[in-house]
Specification:
Layout (H helix, E strand, L loop, with lengths): L8 E2 H13 L4 H5 L6 H4 L5 E2 L1 H14 L6 H6 L9 H7 L4 H10 L9 E7 L2 E7 L8 H18 L7 E5 L8 H8 L11 E5 H4 L8 H18 L4 H9 L9 H7 L4 H10 L4 H19 L4 H7 L5 H12 L3 H9 L1
Antiparallel strand pairs: 1-2, 3-4, 4-6, 5-6
Helix pairs in contact: 1-4, 4-15, 6-7, 6-11, 12-15, 13-14, 15-18, 16-17
Amino acid sequence: MPKKDPILHPVAIAQVMINFAASHGIDQDTCLQGTEIIEKELCDSDALITRNQEMRLIENLILALPNEPALGFQLGMQYNIATFGVWGFAIRTSRTLREAATRAMQYLPLSTAYCNIYQFEDGELFGLGLDPEPIPPHLRQFLLERDMATALNLMKELNFAGVKIAGVELEGAPPEYASLIEELCGHKPTYNCKRNAGLIRQEDVDRPLPMFDANLVRMLEDQCKIQLERRKVSGLEGQVRQQLLGTLGLVATLDNVAKTLAMSPRSLRRKLEQEGTNFRAIVEEERRQIALQLLIGSSMKLDELAIHLGYTDTASFTRAFRRWMSCSPGEYRKNHCH
């Protein structure tokens, strides 16, 4: 995964998730557990949270609703243009949908997207493709569904201009809840495709949008640039987590991560201490969160799970898990799956 500056997200996006959870009977404290997001921030429209805080909230939501079908799609349908502030309004006031798509990707960090998003043309069709590869494996399906549903929902908001979705393509076989996805997005997806994408006819993609305002677009673009600068965060802890959850994986050593971040192991250790943490604590926290998710949300055997989390054997993983949760992985899975 390419190295990127971590970007802060507006707490309003987290609030959408909390409201969604509440509609399913999940309380706010459960959503915020381990995120270090405080209630005061939720009431502040200007408050920002880190990507890691948002991912922890997402993990909590998945853990709280392990049997809810199409959970990512359901959540994605809660986001609309207004949710994203200046980024959303910059899209709405664009000249055409093609221009809106280009502008959306130019300032993509201001959205909720975790997938790599790209434009393409395929004969008479224009498409937005979603590549979930950069997303940590335990969150990949959920966030692909959320990003896809959000993209489709934003396209639908332009429907008043005569723009209609021509197709939805998804990799892999249809899930058990395929009928619910069809109901939610209003279009029957095509499965086992070579990509994940939303499609629009070329004749529609260059159709003028009724909200276009050149002066307003310039003003909103300036605001988008300001927002991007404001939301950039240089915290080293976030960059380390990004490497552990990306291509390096949880088997990575401090030396591996230091080399990827172009610094010496000693400097990495010292700078993490200055931020009030250390490499081992970061690895442990990520292992614990992923273990909880996979124990409930998958049928992965314990020896496979141990290897996935970077342990040399199952016994080492079991000892660590008992230290975290005061029970064995098998006991935790049995209790929570029941």
